[in-house]
Amino acid sequence: DPKIIQKPKYLVAVTGSEKILICEQYLGHNAMYWYRQSAKKPLEFMFSYSYQKLMDNQTASSRFQPQSSKKNHLDLQITALKPDDSATYFCASSQEGTAEQFFGPGTRLTVL
Amino acid sequence: GDQVKQSPSALSLQEGTNSALRCNFSIATTTVQWFLQNPRGSLMNLFYLVPGTKENGRLKSTFNSKESYSTLHIRDAQLEDSGTYFCAANTNTGKLTFGDGTVLTVKP
Fold it and tell me: B30 and A98: CB-CB below 8 Å?
């Protein structure tokens, strides 16, 4: 059974719209993260949460807002979508900040 | 990126041969992770390293914190080893900083 679930797997959106990317982890971890991988680029850190509190934000735009409704959930809301937002978004989790991180399968977002 | 320099950027191996990948860090690194990204995009954890060496089957990895580098050795390369290998540095904040990746192709 998958331990980190991301939904949807694929997402197509129009410019200017808003989407929410879902992430749930069943590893019992206390820290969760979002990373972004654009085409042919390495993964880039976006956010980290620990015990449902924001620890680090490396995203320049306020259009990206993480939402943590439960300890094992960290969703990502993206507003006013732009074509440059097209990427695969990975959710990850770890027991705590310096521990090994495990990644979900990703959501591939395409903005037209 | 500049903070984690990974080499080589691409590598082609004959099945059964050995090779090594390397990452140099210009940021204070507490732990290192190595991943393999398959053609479908999934990230598989290979190693999580505090300073020292770990071995798993045909793979062996070292993290030298004093000299700020990590290596991944692949022995007896197999076709299924093909993919993109990433190293990532954790600077004790939880943020992983990734290298640009090594695209490995193993040929029969």
Answer: yes
Interface check for B45 against chain A (CB to CB < 8 A): the answer is: yes
Q: Which residues contact A88 (CB under 8 A, 6 or more apart)?
A: A36, A37, A106, A107, A108, A109, B41
User: Which structure tokens are listed for B49?
Assistant: 């390293």
Written as tens digits, the pLDDT of chain A (112 aa) is 679 999 999 999 999 999 999 999 999 999 999 999 998 678 999 999 999 899 888 887 999 999 998 989 999 999 999 999 999 999 999 998 789 999 999 999 999 9
Rounded to a whole number of angstroms, the distance from the CA of A82 to the nearest CA of chain B is 22
Find tokens 């090779």 and name the residue. Answer: B19
Question: Which residue is closest to B29 within chain A, CA to CA?
Answer: A98
A41 contacts in B (CB within 8 Å)? Answer: 100
**pLDDT tens by residue, A61-90:** 999 999 998 989 999 999 999 999 999 999
A89 touches chain B (CB under 8 A): no
